[in-house]
Amino acid sequence: MNNKNLREEVLRISGVNPKKCMRCGKCSATCPAYDEMEYHPHQFVYMVESGDISSLLDSESLYRCLSCFACIDRCPRNVEPAKLVEAIRLSKIRKQGANHMTANDVPALLDEDMPQQAIVSAFRKYSK
Amino acid sequence: MQMKEHKPLIVAFCCNWCSYAGADLAGNNRLNYPAEVKVIRVPCSCRVNPMFVLRAFQRGADGVIICGCHPGDCHYVSGNYYTRRRMAMLFSMLDYLGIEKERTRIEWVSAAEGAKFAATMNDFVETVAKLGENKRLEDLRCK
Amino acid sequence: MQRIGVFVCWCGSNIAGTVDVKAVAEALKNEPGVVFSTNYQYMCSQAGQDMIKAAIAGHKLGGIVVCSCSPRMHEATFRKTASQAGINPYMVEIANIREQCSWVHKDMATGTEKAIILGKAAVAKVNLNTPLTPGESPVTKRALVIGGGIAGIQTALDIADAGFPVDIVETKPTIGGKMAQLDKTFPTLDCAACILTPKMVEVAQHENIRIFSYSEVSEIKGFVGNFDVTIKRKARYVKEDICTGCGACVEKCPMKKIPNEFNLGMDNRSAVYIPFAQAVPKVATIDPNACNMLKNGRCGICAKVCTAGAIDYTQKDEYIEEKYGAIVAATGFNPISMDKFDEFAYSQSKDVITSLEFERLTNAAGPTAGKLLRPSDGKHPHTIVFVQCVGSRCSACTEKGKEYCSKICCMYTAKHAMLTRDKYPDTEVYVFYIDVRTPGKNFDEFYRRAVEEYGVNYIKGMVGKVTPEGSKLKVQASDLIANKQLHIDADLVVLAAAIEPDKSARPLATMLTASMDTNDFFTEAHPKLRPVESPTAGVFLSGTCQGPKDIPETVSQAGAAASKVIGLLAKDKLTGNPCIAKSDEWMCNGCSSCGKVCAYGAITYEEKEFRLPDRTTKIRRVASVNPAVCQGCGACTVTCPSGAMDLNGFTTTQIMAEVDAICK
Predict the structure, then answer these.
(1) Coil, strand, or helix at residue C360?
(2) Is residue C407 part of a domain?
(3) Alpha-carbon gap: C347 to the closest alpha carbon of chain A (Å)
(4) How far apart are CA C159 and CA C151, in angstroms?
(5) Which of A64, A74, A79, A95 is the most exposed place for a label (fewest CB within 10 A)?
């Protein structure tokens, strides 16, 4: 899928209009996971607007978002950045034929705190 | 044998403050538009009673255009908003009756837009001419 | 049927070049009602006009049609000609055969054909014309200014200086408004009190100005030139004419723990109080909700200490009625409530304040005598964070913020930051901005000075969260240029709260039948060309009640409003436009549709007694148009379901006749 179609897909899934953004940065100011992210909430909005979805799709930042919706609550223009993040996650999953997680990847992800069920469901969700 | 070309008859209602002045400006700048257009001056586009439009079609007009100030610029604050809503209703009803949507139009022309007035009239006359004569509402008793 | 004369103008070759004027005159001769038809080179010339006058007299014409240039050009000329010849000026119709015919068509045949049709339409209209006389109404030469802030003060002074009496109605015990609360004013940094208080004194001493302080407008009736206004003078329990403002009562009053509104609740006042030292009128006021004597009859100390004997616990609200020719709304603004902005911890910490509170903190007459001290512990703040656009430019939730830019915040924040760095160079000052908007004379220079000379840290970004922790305020914010999230330990956070119109504006607009926008700002008659007039005749707008603006803009608008008022009051009589709506009372069923679409509030309804053919009487509700207020747009005529409403000069039958003539 090319970038333009990707952008359309993300906009359709999220129902967000990134043009409403006035670039105040309150979403990033309010984000509790800011320091964990490579791309920050305001950048999600800007990058979707400018069509640079592929960088976002490949970024770990997608999964650093806690979906706490603080950005949605505080945004003065009702842009809803968290919905964009979720839409990009969905379009990543919906990529047919892509294998995001193989059985070989699982051992590396294991640690003491991780419930086994989470690994299993992630494996189901992200593998072909 | 050649058919005589149909000359459509267009009635244009223009508000005194914007569109009538726009039409005057088109004249000042010598911008041509077809003579089929006949302008009736009204104080505000909201003075145009749907009855006037119906009457024009009944008496054989082929198209009716209403021109007013741009939204937000109405000399009478909100008159053109009433026009917009009333005419949206009327035009869709006329469409239902068989008066094609292309025969009716609302256009916002400011006093500075002489060129827009002329262009609008040229386009409107051309559009209506393509549709041919209006027979649907014509009252034959008036003939 | 009228006796109509038709006059076709050549306009040199302007018309005659494309229109066969003789053929037009000839063709119109046969139209119904036409008894005379001629053509001439220049109808608007003296000779042309004389020709018209002679024809009116010679042929006993009742109406004339001039086929010439646009009515916007010479309608007035020919109306004057007609009236000089003794017929009603509204019996004249113009067929526009120049701008809308000869100038836009090239072919003689089509031009002539169209000119004849336009002429026929004009003849058809004149046949239905009726003589119209403009209504006249007297003007009460007195103006009412509602609101005693800088806008109201300036408007009142300008009107009064022109020699007209003015009354100011102010709800607070003193005039002065928001400007009286300010410390310094941008961009020149002169002190607000130093420039405002002389004006307040001037108002008090002006022979043409009466101040109704601690009063409200409770009812407005009438129309332009003739408003009947009822003013409610709230009981202040002090005789205004006797009180000397010595302050003995204030000093001795035992109830001293009442939050002081003037200092935005940052310190206390007594139950009997004078808002501030330079108050005008400088008269004490007793707060009935706080005074023990008024609540339960136990105290009365103020009456004992008042040597002038001005205290009167039995005072009642008083209503006075007055007539005015013009009304100026100058109701001003308020900062919005910060209750819904909990992310900034406004309700949790005393050290999160609004910019207006900051003004009071830095004001020499304020709660800290001008020393910048934290409201919580009275210590000097070393790190101050200013947050801009709090509630401004916020379209997410109308309950919370306002969609518009409040306009003044960028400049006053720059001022606050600059003054803080000037007085306390050891203070670190951060300003979080989305955009810095500083259009205005010397405004951007001022902002740049704050950055370059005073070292204020301007950071592009927004504060997301403020958390009180111990004596500090943890500020979490974004720096969009560095692409970083910042964490600042601040001592004081100042919120540039959006401004909104005063709550009294909406009920006032209802009383005035003046229109408002969705934000409760008064709407101007034309956004560019009539910015200080309300669409409702005789109502004028001054200051922030029309939209956010700073002091210089407010003062210039106040002056403009005053000049409009003076222009109105200088007239002895108002001559109306006779082309206005009229209602046929026999057809009207009182449904109120017309009143709802009238932008001017010109239509009222009255119960009227009708004699029926069977000699009984019946009382019915019917619409009545006020000729002094109606502007003649015709919105009501189309709305009327029974066809009772019509518009003089553009009646339904007249326009129908034009349509018929054109479509024949």
Answers:
(1) helix
(2) yes
(3) 17
(4) 12
(5) A95
Confidence check: pLDDT of C576 > 90: no
Instruction: Compute the nearest-CA separation of C124 from chain A (Å).
Output: 55
Angle of CA points C494, C498, C503, to nearest 5°: 125
Whether residue C597 is found in the same domain as residue C481: no
The domain of A104 spans 99-128
Peptide bond into C134 cis (omega under 30): no
Burial class (CB in 10 A: 0-12, 13-18, 19+), A114: exposed
Interface test with C, best of B10, B32, B46, B109 (most C CBs within 10 A): B46
Task: Count up the domains in chain C and report the number.
Answer: 3
Cis before C187? omega within 30: yes
Domains of chain B: 10-136 (3.40.50)
Q: How high is the ipTM of this complex?
A: 0.95
Sign (positive/negative) of CA torsion A96, A97, A103, A109? Answer: negative
Burial of C273 (0-12, 13-18, 19+ CB in 10 A): buried
Report CA Rg, chain A: 15
Per-residue pLDDT averaged across C648-655, rounded? 95
Chain C contact present for B9, CB below 8 A: yes
| Interface touch C464/A74, C-beta < 8 Å | yes
Closest by Cβ to A77, choosing from C396, C461, C485: C396
Separation between Cα atoms, residue C646 and residue C376, nearest integer Å: 67
Q: CB of C336 within 8 Å of any CB in chain A?
A: no
Contacts of A75 in chain C (CB under 8 A): 396
Give me the CATH number covering residue A72: 1.10.1060.10
Could you tell me the two tokens for B91? Answer: 């035009």
Contacts of A105 (CB under 8 A, 6+ apart): none
In this complex, do C647 and B43 lie within 8 Å of one another by their Cβ atoms? yes
| C664 neighbourhood in chain B, CB within 8 Å | 59
Cβ distance C393 to A22 less than 8 Å, yes or no, reads yes
Buried-exposed string C476-511: b where 16+ CB fall within 10 A, e elsewhere? bbbbbeeebbbebebbbbbbbbbbbbbebbeebbeb
